[in-house]
Structure formats: structure tokens, C-alpha cells
Automatic annotation (TrEMBL):
<protein>
    <submittedName>
        <fullName>Uncharacterized protein</fullName>
    </submittedName>
</protein>
């Protein structure tokens, strides 16, 4: 965890970042904001991959430390697929179902949490399957070429790599 203070913000922000080794890109994985409220109560907001997952009022340092410990233990969704692995035009439907965060496609309904570290959440699994299906459908039918030849090599390797990068 790294502690940050910002001008004009009455409180502190703890941030936990991740490094994507392939692209040398750093993204904010977990954020906990402690904001001074009224009557000695501190408001706490927990974000995972930019999505608000918890709000609480904190009255003691022990509670704040507990929030940081629990947040550090939340498994993070790895997303549906790396943006670089998608080398085809997305349909309007897929564009409305997905968003890009840190070079990765996520479902717009992804809460940032997963049941197991390094695995996608259920909604990102569905998006991954839709992307795989779209990848298997060629834009223009080329006589004598099957979709599995191009699909099964590069794309499956990149999907497998994106699953294990956390």
C-alpha cells in the first residue's frame, strides 16, 4: 500500500498498484479513501479497478487497518482479454458490453472482484466467450480457410497469458 495525500482533499488515499510486465504499464488495482466526515466519523470508500465495492463509516484506527487488510485480500478480476490480442473489428454489441481498463477488456458489469485471484469474474468470462466467438467468425469468408487455423494459435495463447498475469 502507498499513502497519498491530495491538496483540497480532507483525508488520505491508500493505493495498491500492479505492474503489467509485458507492457511496463502500471495500473491502480485497489484504492481505499478515508475522508473526514462530521462528528469525528471517517468515511471510507473502497475501489477495485476503479469500481466502488464498499462504503463504510470508520471510528477507530483498528477498523481502518481492518479495511486495508480485507481490501488487500480481495481477489481481482483479470478481465476478458488483452486489448492487443483482439485483432478484429468489434460489433456494436461487444463494444457496449465491454470497457478497457489498463490495456484489458472488462465487462461493463464487472465489479472488479473475482472468486479466485487471477481468474475473471463471471461477467468477464461471458465477455471472453463472446470475444472468442467473434474471433472465430471471419469478417470476409476466404475460400479454403477455416476460422480455427488462425483462432487457435495466437488468440488462445494470448488469452491463456492474460489469465495468469496477476
Amino acid at each position: 500500500w502507498a499513502l497519498h495525500e491530495f491538496p483540497g482533499f480532507v483525508g488520505v488515499c491508500y493505493v495498491c498498484c500492479e505492474l503489467h510486465a509485458a507492457t511496463s504499464e502500471i495500473r491502480i488495482a485497489r484504492t481505499v479513501l478515508f475522508n473526514c466526515g462530521s462528528e469525528g466519523v471517517v468515511q471510507c470508500k473502497v475501489h477495485i479497478l476503479g469500481k466502488l465495492v464498499e462504503e463504510a463509516d470508520i471510528v477507530s484506527i483498528e477498523q481502518a487497518e481492518d479495511v486495508l487488510r480485507r481490501t488487500a485480500g480481495i481477489p481481482i478480476c483479470c478481465g476478458a482479454a488483452e486489448v492487443t490480442s483482439v485483432s478484429f473489428g468489434l460489433t456494436r454489441g461487444l463494444l457496449t458490453q465491454s470497457e478497457i481498463y489498463g490495456g484489458t477488456f472488462f465487462s461493463v458489469n464487472c465489479a472488479g472482484k473475482s472468486s479466485k485471484e487471477g481468474q475473471p469474474c463471471l461477467r468477464c468470462k461471458y465477455l471472453r466467450k463472446a470475444l472468442e466467438t467473434r474471433m472465430c467468425r471471419p469478417q470476409k469468408k476466404i475460400p479454403g480457410q477455416s476460422c480455427t487455423a488462425s483462432y487457435s494459435t495466437d488468440y488462445e495463447l494470448q488469452i491463456a497469458n492474460s489469465r495468469g498475469r496477476h
